[in-house]
Amino acid sequence: MASPASPPPVPGQDVYGPAGRSAWLTVDWRRHQRWRVVRGQIVNVIDLGPDPAASDGGPPLLFVHGLSGSWQNWLENLPAFARTRRVVAVDLPGFGASPMPRDDRITIPGYASLLAGLLDVLGIPSAVLVGNSMGGFIALELALSAPERVTALVLVASAGLDARAQRPERLLGTLRRAERLIVAGGAMIATHADAVARRARLRQATMHLAVRHPERLPNALMSEQIRQGNGKPGFVAAIDALTDHDIDSRLHAIACPTLVYWGREDRIVPVRDAARFVQLIPGSRAEILEDTGHMAMLERPARFNADVADFLASSARSPAV
Length: 321
Known about the structure:
By secondary structure, this protein is an alpha/beta fold. It has twelve helices and eight strands. Helix content is 36%, strand content 15%. The protein has an eight-stranded mixed beta sheet, with helices on both faces. A hairpin with a 2-residue loop joins strand 1 and strand 2 (41-48). It is globular and about 50 Å long. The relative contact order is 0.17.
Protein backbone atom coordinates (compact mmCIF):
# COMPACT_ATOMS: atom_id res chain seq x y z
CA MET A 1 0.00 0.00 0.00
CA ALA A 2 1.36 3.40 -0.92
CA SER A 3 1.60 5.86 1.91
CA PRO A 4 -1.50 8.04 2.00
CA ALA A 5 -1.12 11.61 0.86
CA SER A 6 -1.35 13.95 3.82
CA PRO A 7 -3.06 17.34 3.69
CA PRO A 8 -0.90 20.42 4.24
CA PRO A 9 -0.11 20.60 7.96
CA VAL A 10 -1.71 23.20 10.15
CA PRO A 11 1.01 25.52 11.51
CA GLY A 12 2.44 24.04 14.69
CA GLN A 13 1.00 20.57 14.17
CA ASP A 14 4.03 18.98 12.56
CA VAL A 15 6.59 20.03 15.13
CA TYR A 16 8.35 17.23 16.95
CA GLY A 17 7.34 17.14 20.60
CA PRO A 18 4.97 19.39 22.51
CA ALA A 19 4.61 23.00 21.39
CA GLY A 20 4.79 25.37 24.35
CA ARG A 21 3.91 24.43 27.90
CA SER A 22 2.02 21.13 28.02
CA ALA A 23 -1.48 21.14 29.48
CA TRP A 24 -0.82 18.00 31.53
CA LEU A 25 1.63 19.89 33.74
CA THR A 26 -1.23 21.97 35.17
CA VAL A 27 -3.62 19.07 35.82
CA ASP A 28 -4.04 17.81 39.39
CA TRP A 29 -4.03 14.15 38.37
CA ARG A 30 -4.83 13.01 41.92
CA ARG A 31 -8.35 14.37 41.43
CA HIS A 32 -8.85 12.03 38.49
CA GLN A 33 -7.11 8.90 39.77
CA ARG A 34 -9.35 6.02 40.84
CA TRP A 35 -8.74 2.51 42.14
CA ARG A 36 -11.31 0.19 40.64
CA VAL A 37 -11.94 -3.50 41.26
CA VAL A 38 -12.64 -5.20 37.95
CA ARG A 39 -13.58 -8.87 38.10
CA GLY A 40 -11.60 -9.21 41.30
CA GLN A 41 -8.57 -7.35 39.95
CA ILE A 42 -7.42 -4.00 41.39
CA VAL A 43 -6.78 -1.56 38.55
CA ASN A 44 -5.41 1.99 38.50
CA VAL A 45 -7.59 4.24 36.36
CA ILE A 46 -7.52 7.87 35.26
CA ASP A 47 -11.00 9.22 34.52
CA LEU A 48 -11.68 12.80 33.48
CA GLY A 49 -13.99 14.72 31.23
CA PRO A 50 -15.58 18.02 30.29
CA ASP A 51 -18.13 20.25 31.89
CA PRO A 52 -21.45 18.84 30.62
CA ALA A 53 -22.05 22.05 28.67
CA ALA A 54 -18.78 21.51 26.75
CA SER A 55 -19.40 17.86 25.84
CA ASP A 56 -19.73 17.05 22.14
CA GLY A 57 -21.96 14.09 22.95
CA GLY A 58 -19.56 11.54 21.51
CA PRO A 59 -18.68 8.25 23.18
CA PRO A 60 -15.88 8.19 25.75
CA LEU A 61 -12.32 7.39 24.76
CA LEU A 62 -10.44 4.55 26.46
CA PHE A 63 -6.64 4.80 26.12
CA VAL A 64 -4.64 1.54 26.38
CA HIS A 65 -0.85 1.55 26.73
CA GLY A 66 1.63 -0.95 25.38
CA LEU A 67 4.39 -3.17 26.75
CA SER A 68 6.36 -1.39 29.48
CA GLY A 69 3.79 1.39 29.33
CA SER A 70 1.41 3.13 31.69
CA TRP A 71 -1.41 5.64 31.54
CA GLN A 72 1.25 8.37 31.47
CA ASN A 73 1.96 7.41 27.85
CA TRP A 74 -1.10 9.55 27.07
CA LEU A 75 -0.17 12.67 29.04
CA GLU A 76 -0.08 14.84 25.92
CA ASN A 77 -3.47 13.60 24.74
CA LEU A 78 -5.81 13.20 27.72
CA PRO A 79 -6.27 16.93 28.48
CA ALA A 80 -6.93 17.72 24.81
CA PHE A 81 -9.74 15.20 24.43
CA ALA A 82 -11.12 15.77 27.93
CA ARG A 83 -12.27 19.22 26.83
CA THR A 84 -15.18 17.65 24.95
CA ARG A 85 -15.39 13.98 25.93
CA ARG A 86 -14.97 11.68 28.88
CA VAL A 87 -11.53 10.08 28.67
CA VAL A 88 -10.28 7.06 30.57
CA ALA A 89 -6.74 5.68 30.73
CA VAL A 90 -5.81 2.48 32.51
CA ASP A 91 -2.69 0.83 33.90
CA LEU A 92 -2.98 -2.76 32.72
CA PRO A 93 -2.35 -5.37 35.44
CA GLY A 94 1.38 -5.80 35.88
CA PHE A 95 2.17 -2.29 34.63
CA GLY A 96 2.12 1.23 35.98
CA ALA A 97 0.53 1.18 39.42
CA SER A 98 -1.72 -1.83 38.80
CA PRO A 99 -0.62 -5.06 40.50
CA MET A 100 -0.14 -8.30 38.63
CA PRO A 101 -3.19 -10.48 37.96
CA ARG A 102 -4.07 -12.69 40.91
CA ASP A 103 -2.81 -15.79 39.09
CA ASP A 104 0.26 -13.96 37.67
CA ARG A 105 -0.96 -14.89 34.19
CA ILE A 106 -1.23 -12.35 31.38
CA THR A 107 -3.00 -13.03 28.08
CA ILE A 108 -4.32 -10.76 25.35
CA PRO A 109 -7.90 -12.15 25.66
CA GLY A 110 -7.62 -11.74 29.44
CA TYR A 111 -6.65 -8.09 29.09
CA ALA A 112 -9.50 -7.54 26.60
CA SER A 113 -11.97 -9.11 29.03
CA LEU A 114 -10.65 -6.85 31.77
CA LEU A 115 -11.28 -3.78 29.59
CA ALA A 116 -14.86 -4.92 29.01
CA GLY A 117 -15.25 -5.33 32.76
CA LEU A 118 -13.77 -1.88 33.34
CA LEU A 119 -16.34 -0.35 30.99
CA ASP A 120 -19.03 -2.10 33.02
CA VAL A 121 -17.66 -0.76 36.30
CA LEU A 122 -17.47 2.76 34.88
CA GLY A 123 -20.97 2.59 33.43
CA ILE A 124 -19.77 3.03 29.84
CA PRO A 125 -21.79 1.02 27.29
CA SER A 126 -19.24 1.49 24.50
CA ALA A 127 -16.12 3.53 23.82
CA VAL A 128 -13.57 4.55 21.23
CA LEU A 129 -10.45 2.50 21.96
CA VAL A 130 -7.08 4.13 21.38
CA GLY A 131 -4.28 1.60 21.76
CA ASN A 132 -0.52 1.80 21.34
CA SER A 133 1.49 -1.32 20.44
CA MET A 134 0.28 -4.10 22.77
CA GLY A 135 -2.64 -1.81 23.65
CA GLY A 136 -3.71 -1.87 20.01
CA PHE A 137 -3.58 -5.68 20.02
CA ILE A 138 -5.82 -5.73 23.11
CA ALA A 139 -8.20 -3.20 21.56
CA LEU A 140 -8.50 -5.36 18.44
CA GLU A 141 -9.28 -8.42 20.54
CA LEU A 142 -12.04 -6.55 22.37
CA ALA A 143 -13.48 -5.28 19.07
CA LEU A 144 -13.65 -8.90 17.89
CA SER A 145 -14.86 -10.57 21.07
CA ALA A 146 -17.31 -7.84 22.15
CA PRO A 147 -17.91 -5.59 19.11
CA GLU A 148 -20.83 -3.84 20.79
CA ARG A 149 -18.39 -2.30 23.27
CA VAL A 150 -16.13 -0.65 20.65
CA THR A 151 -17.44 2.22 18.54
CA ALA A 152 -14.15 2.99 16.80
CA LEU A 153 -10.48 2.01 16.90
CA VAL A 154 -7.30 4.06 16.77
CA LEU A 155 -4.34 1.70 16.40
CA VAL A 156 -1.04 3.44 17.16
CA ALA A 157 1.77 1.20 15.92
CA SER A 158 -0.31 -1.80 16.93
CA ALA A 159 1.20 -5.18 17.69
CA GLY A 160 -0.62 -8.38 16.78
CA LEU A 161 0.32 -9.47 13.28
CA ASP A 162 2.08 -12.83 12.85
CA ALA A 163 2.23 -13.17 16.62
CA ARG A 164 3.00 -16.87 16.98
CA ALA A 165 5.26 -16.89 13.93
CA GLN A 166 7.52 -14.42 15.71
CA ARG A 167 7.52 -16.20 19.06
CA PRO A 168 11.12 -16.08 20.43
CA GLU A 169 11.21 -19.29 22.46
CA ARG A 170 14.91 -19.10 23.30
CA LEU A 171 14.70 -15.44 24.28
CA LEU A 172 11.62 -16.09 26.41
CA GLY A 173 13.50 -18.80 28.27
CA THR A 174 16.37 -16.41 28.94
CA LEU A 175 14.00 -13.66 30.08
CA ARG A 176 12.18 -16.00 32.46
CA ARG A 177 15.45 -17.07 34.05
CA ALA A 178 16.59 -13.46 34.42
CA GLU A 179 13.20 -12.01 35.34
CA ARG A 180 14.10 -10.93 38.86
CA LEU A 181 17.23 -9.17 37.65
CA ILE A 182 15.30 -7.47 34.83
CA VAL A 183 12.66 -6.15 37.22
CA ALA A 184 15.26 -5.05 39.78
CA GLY A 185 17.35 -3.29 37.15
CA GLY A 186 14.31 -1.56 35.72
CA ALA A 187 13.22 -0.48 39.18
CA MET A 188 16.64 1.10 39.72
CA ILE A 189 16.27 3.07 36.49
CA ALA A 190 12.76 4.13 37.49
CA THR A 191 13.98 5.32 40.89
CA HIS A 192 16.45 7.67 39.18
CA ALA A 193 14.12 8.69 36.33
CA ASP A 194 14.67 12.42 36.72
CA ALA A 195 18.44 12.04 36.55
CA VAL A 196 18.22 9.64 33.58
CA ALA A 197 15.98 12.08 31.69
CA ARG A 198 18.43 14.95 32.26
CA ARG A 199 21.46 13.06 30.95
CA ALA A 200 21.56 12.81 27.17
CA ARG A 201 23.32 9.43 26.89
CA LEU A 202 21.20 7.75 29.57
CA ARG A 203 17.99 9.14 28.08
CA GLN A 204 19.04 7.95 24.63
CA ALA A 205 19.88 4.47 25.92
CA THR A 206 16.57 4.19 27.77
CA MET A 207 14.17 5.67 25.20
CA HIS A 208 15.74 5.30 21.74
CA LEU A 209 13.66 2.26 20.78
CA ALA A 210 10.38 3.92 21.71
CA VAL A 211 10.84 7.40 20.23
CA ARG A 212 12.75 8.71 17.25
CA HIS A 213 14.38 11.71 18.98
CA PRO A 214 14.56 11.32 22.77
CA GLU A 215 16.78 14.39 23.00
CA ARG A 216 14.06 16.62 21.53
CA LEU A 217 11.34 15.76 24.04
CA PRO A 218 10.95 17.63 27.35
CA ASN A 219 12.71 16.29 30.42
CA ALA A 220 9.48 16.16 32.43
CA LEU A 221 7.69 14.09 29.80
CA MET A 222 10.60 11.69 29.41
CA SER A 223 10.98 11.36 33.16
CA GLU A 224 7.36 10.22 33.50
CA GLN A 225 7.82 7.57 30.81
CA ILE A 226 11.02 6.26 32.40
CA ARG A 227 9.62 6.28 35.95
CA GLN A 228 6.36 4.54 35.15
CA GLY A 229 7.56 2.16 32.44
CA ASN A 230 10.55 0.42 34.01
CA GLY A 231 10.82 -2.32 36.62
CA LYS A 232 7.24 -3.59 36.33
CA PRO A 233 6.44 -7.25 37.04
CA GLY A 234 4.31 -7.82 33.93
CA PHE A 235 7.10 -7.39 31.39
CA VAL A 236 8.13 -10.99 30.71
CA ALA A 237 4.61 -12.41 31.00
CA ALA A 238 3.34 -9.80 28.56
CA ILE A 239 6.01 -10.65 25.98
CA ASP A 240 4.87 -14.26 26.29
CA ALA A 241 1.24 -13.14 25.80
CA LEU A 242 2.08 -10.97 22.79
CA THR A 243 3.52 -13.94 20.93
CA ASP A 244 0.95 -16.52 21.98
CA HIS A 245 -2.25 -15.23 20.40
CA ASP A 246 -2.99 -15.01 16.68
CA ILE A 247 -5.48 -12.52 15.35
CA ASP A 248 -4.70 -12.08 11.64
CA SER A 249 -7.37 -14.41 10.27
CA ARG A 250 -10.12 -12.68 12.29
CA LEU A 251 -9.42 -9.07 11.39
CA HIS A 252 -11.87 -9.13 8.47
CA ALA A 253 -14.64 -9.18 11.10
CA ILE A 254 -13.74 -5.75 12.50
CA ALA A 255 -16.82 -3.66 11.73
CA CYS A 256 -16.12 -0.32 13.39
CA PRO A 257 -14.30 2.67 11.87
CA THR A 258 -10.55 2.13 12.25
CA LEU A 259 -7.62 4.52 11.98
CA VAL A 260 -4.18 2.91 11.64
CA TYR A 261 -1.56 5.37 12.87
CA TRP A 262 2.20 4.88 12.51
CA GLY A 263 5.61 6.50 12.62
CA ARG A 264 7.75 5.88 9.56
CA GLU A 265 10.86 5.26 11.71
CA ASP A 266 9.26 2.88 14.22
CA ARG A 267 12.05 0.68 15.61
CA ILE A 268 9.75 -1.74 17.44
CA VAL A 269 6.85 -2.58 15.10
CA PRO A 270 7.75 -2.01 11.43
CA VAL A 271 5.73 0.51 9.46
CA ARG A 272 4.98 -2.15 6.82
CA ASP A 273 2.46 -3.59 9.28
CA ALA A 274 0.30 -0.50 8.75
CA ALA A 275 -0.34 -1.55 5.16
CA ARG A 276 -1.25 -5.08 6.24
CA PHE A 277 -3.71 -3.85 8.85
CA VAL A 278 -5.41 -1.69 6.21
CA GLN A 279 -5.60 -4.69 3.89
CA LEU A 280 -7.10 -6.91 6.59
CA ILE A 281 -9.51 -4.51 8.34
CA PRO A 282 -12.41 -3.49 6.09
CA GLY A 283 -12.79 0.24 5.58
CA SER A 284 -9.73 1.16 7.66
CA ARG A 285 -7.29 3.86 6.65
CA ALA A 286 -3.71 4.69 7.57
CA GLU A 287 -1.86 7.82 8.55
CA ILE A 288 1.94 7.59 8.40
CA LEU A 289 4.06 10.26 10.08
CA GLU A 290 7.56 10.97 8.83
CA ASP A 291 10.56 11.16 11.18
CA THR A 292 8.49 9.57 13.97
CA GLY A 293 8.98 6.43 16.02
CA HIS A 294 6.79 4.05 18.02
CA MET A 295 4.96 6.60 20.16
CA ALA A 296 3.48 9.14 17.77
CA MET A 297 1.09 10.39 20.45
CA LEU A 298 4.05 11.68 22.48
CA GLU A 299 6.37 12.57 19.62
CA ARG A 300 3.91 14.64 17.61
CA PRO A 301 1.03 15.29 20.00
CA ALA A 302 -0.52 18.28 18.22
CA ARG A 303 -0.68 16.35 14.95
CA PHE A 304 -1.90 13.19 16.65
CA ASN A 305 -4.64 14.96 18.59
CA ALA A 306 -5.84 16.79 15.48
CA ASP A 307 -5.81 13.67 13.32
CA VAL A 308 -7.75 11.62 15.87
CA ALA A 309 -10.27 14.44 16.36
CA ASP A 310 -10.75 14.62 12.57
CA PHE A 311 -11.15 10.85 12.39
CA LEU A 312 -13.82 10.88 15.10
CA ALA A 313 -15.64 13.74 13.41
CA SER A 314 -15.57 12.05 10.00
CA SER A 315 -16.77 8.79 11.56
CA ALA A 316 -19.64 10.43 13.43
CA ARG A 317 -22.02 9.75 10.54
CA SER A 318 -21.67 6.04 11.24
CA PRO A 319 -24.29 4.68 13.69
CA ALA A 320 -21.44 3.06 15.64
CA VAL A 321 -19.69 6.33 16.60
